[in-house]
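Appendix B, record 7
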Amino acid sequence: YTDEDGNRKLRYWIHIADSDQMSPRYSKPFAGARKRATSHYLPHTTISMFPPDLSDAMSLIAQRDSFALSMGVELNDDGSIIDSSIIIAPSIVKVSYRLTYNDVDEMLEDGVGYREEWELGALFDAAV
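Structure tokens (predicted):
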């Protein structure tokens, strides 16, 4: 969009699975997850905050509507977040497809992240 001064602005959205939808506060799974505090994503395994079946149901799976918490931000030219631009809202998202870090690195190296998946290249350019 264009701001009131005629400057082009881009809003970036970050979506995380909303586990509260399937594991309400003070439920048994919530208590266990609270003890673990986070999921750990390691190169060859994942140590999930929730039991595997529940964790899979909560995940942002490709081609499926999923409950999420979404944050929208705008960036300054130096890449810092414009505090007044932050929006946080519950949402339902449908992921087109999932990418690993290796997938993204490969797509950027091969140029696919700029030609066919231009959003990926735009995010990378905004980050550097």
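Remarks on this record: Strands lie at 11-17, 40-42, 45-47, 65-74, 87-94. DSSP finds five helices and five strands in the chain.
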